[in-house]
Amino acid sequence: LLLGCELTASTKSYTFQVDEEDDSDHILALSLVCLTDGAKDECNVVEVVGRNHENQEIAVPVANLKLSCQPLLSLDNFKLQPPVTFRLAAGSGPVHLAGWHRIMHREDASFEEDDDLSEEDEEELPPIMPAKK
Fold this sequence. Notes:
This is Nucleoplasmin-3. Helices cover 5% and strands 48% of the residues. By secondary structure, it is mainly β.
């Protein structure tokens, strides 16, 4: 699924979250951050706000855009775990964020047990021989 949002002076943040009861694994990948039509020549700092392994909120700047010198930044599918908030920490935008959302459905546990092969069913692999000189 494609993701897109825009941060402006009036809409300074956007939160991406998934249903807490959903047992699928979700990955949010941020591809591009860019200034759009109407942006002023000022520093626009975009932060990602999430939680660390101790469940403390942390904010990390991921882009500092300025119309005259760096109007866009490719983030090469920077992967994040939802829920995550994108915040315009400085500037008035508009800043457009683009990326994708991947959903990986977990297999039912009963299928995993059925798929296990017994030792008798496993193929025997030939031993690894040393390379010839």
